[in-house]
Amino acid sequence: xxxxxxxxxxxxxxxxxGVFDEGLTTRQVVEIxxxxxxxxxxxxxxxxxxxxxxxxxxxxxxxxxxxxPTQRL
Length: 73
Prior knowledge:
The chain has one domain. It has no helices and four strands. A four-stranded antiparallel sheet has the order 1-2-3-4, with no helix packed on it. The chain is elongated. The two termini are 21 Å apart.
């Protein structure tokens, strides 16, 4: 988690999305541009996300995990 502090999101673009399980699950592919403060470099990553709605807390929660800022395209 500490390594994520090195990065700042400079752009976030949804590339595709789909809804499943009677509207309780959504999957989307997003393009995230991140600026690495240590290296003074912007990098682009693609992240496939799965979100699920949890009725007990009335919120959408990310189930696919956080993106890997070291991913190379």
